[in-house]
Amino acid sequence: MPLAIALATAATLSVFVAFPLLAPGTEGDQLLPVDVTPLADLKRRRMVVYENLQDLEFEFKAGKIAREDYQTMSENYKAEAAGLMAASLEAETTTQGDAWIEREVAARRARRKVAPSPQYLCPECGFENPLPVKFCGECGAKLASRPELRKKK
Ligand SMILES: [Zn+2]
């Protein structure tokens, strides 16, 4: 009996190991259009709710739905639309927040490029040594001694 359990466990494990490679969902995900963002999806769902609401109104006016049913369904749709709208606004705020951080990081990187630390700049070849070194990493020329080291002497 323990052998059977061991074999069953081994079989189960091998299925789990092999499964990610065989999973049909992996290929399907790659076929999704690139522009399907959570925000776009929320907007699309909101449009569907609005369409349903219009259909509902149309059918109510055509006399196909009882007033009570119409009011209940209409309120449900409006609540759903409001929820999706709130989620959209939240997603937009988050996206803008990320964009702001990216802009800030890019601006800091740009400032760093514009003003390289002069003490690491090689006077011989002009190479910007990224670290405080005594000799140029590019041509080996001796760099000017750094101010913070001079102070100690
Ligand atoms: Zn150099």
Mean pLDDT: 76
Low-confidence regions:
23-29, 148-153
Q: Main β-sheet, in a few words?
A: none
Beginning-to-end CA distance, first to last residue: 80 Å
Number of strands: 0
User: Approximately what portion of the residues adopt beta-strand conformation?
Assistant: under 5%
How many helices in DSSP terms? 5
Tertiary shape: elongated
Oligomer: single chain
Topology pattern, helix = H, strand = E: HHHHH
List keywords for this structure.
disordered C terminus, binds zinc ion, mainly alpha, 153 residues, 69% helix, 5 helices, elongated
Write up what this structure looks like:
The chain is mainly alpha-helical and 153 residues long. It has 2 domains: 35-114; 115-153, no CATH class. It is built from 5 helices and no strands. It has helices at 2-22, 25-30, 38-61, 67-114, 147-152. It starts with a helix and ends with a helix. Bound molecules: zinc ion (ZN). Residues 122, 124-125, 127, 136, 138-139, 141 line the site of zinc ion (ZN).
